[in-house]
Amino acid sequence: MKNQLFLFSCFIVGSILIISGCAKTVEEPAVLEGYNHYPTNLGDFWEYQMDSTTYDNLGFDIKKTTSFYRESIVEVNISENNDTSYVVEASRKKNFSDDWETTDIYSIEKSTESLIKIEENLHFKKMIFPFVENVAWEGNLFDEQIAETIEGEEVQVYLNWEYKVLSLGNQEEINGRLFTNIAIIQQANDVDNLILKRTSIEKYEEGVGLVHRNMCILDSQDTESTDPWVDKAHKGFILDQTLINTNR
Predict the structure, then answer these.
(1) What are phi and psi of 120, to 5 degrees?
(2) Which of 8, 123, 164, 182 is the most exposed place for a label (fewest CB within 10 A)?
(3) C-alpha angle 135/139/141, rounded to 5°?
């Protein structure tokens, strides 16, 4: 009987040691660099101030406006293949004191490989994971020749875009809030063309999302001018988008 109790005790102790040993070797899956720079939790929202300058009528009509833009994640869907997509509600208002008006519904597809945002049926591969500095990818998954109407003028906004992670771990104060782990993603940097300028830079903070965006989409018919683009532009726009409120 004593031998049976001894063997039973050894079995229990041995089982505990085996389980304990296994527990020590189990590791949480590593979070890919950059994956948390675009949070996608249900209920997350981001509000931005949008300062824009538009050019029209060969540059004689220049209009500066300020408006406000909001995105919120309102639905999460998981497919039979375990792919996850997110429904994004976009809202706008002209004045800060106005009520938000829902204007668009977008979607996001996020995996361990990339994040794709779908706006107006245009697929933008905003990120590829993990983030690696100076690695470029084709982010606009559509014909770059398409044109958008800006103040009545047709502008090929997406010509010559190439996405690239410029730098990681940046620190910057934006709208009074200090961010300490910003990833800077270049979407376009065509500045040597005589008749068009295409630059687009987005800044993402880990655990927060997009905190700042600057776009400069300008065309000119003057190939001889050495003036700055803000002076020689005939059509297009400059956009400065700054985070002013979020739940993150």
Answers:
(1) 50, 40
(2) 8
(3) 145
Distance CA 81, CA 78 (A): 8
- The C-alpha atoms of residue 244 and residue 68 are separated, in whole angstroms, by 9
pLDDT at 79: 81
pTM for the model: 0.86
3-state secondary structure (DSSP) of residue 220: coil
- What b-and-e string marks burial along 135-148, b requiring 16 or more CB atoms within 10 Å of the CB? eeeebbeeeeeeee
Gap between the Cα atoms of 72 and 66, Å rounded: 20
Fill in the amino acid letter for 18.
I
Domain that holds residue 198: 3-246
- For residue 100, what pLDDT is reported? 98
Mean pLDDT by 10 residues, the chain (248 residues): 42 40 41 93 98 93 97 93 90 98 97 95 97 97 96 94 98 98 96 92 98 97 90 96 98
Distance, in Å, from the CA atom of 54 to the CA atom of 150, rounded to the nearest integer, reads: 8
Total of domains in the chain: 1
**What is the Cβ-side half-sphere exposure of residue 210, based on CA atoms within 13 angstroms?**
23
Q: Cis peptide before 130, with omega less than 30 degrees from 0? A: yes
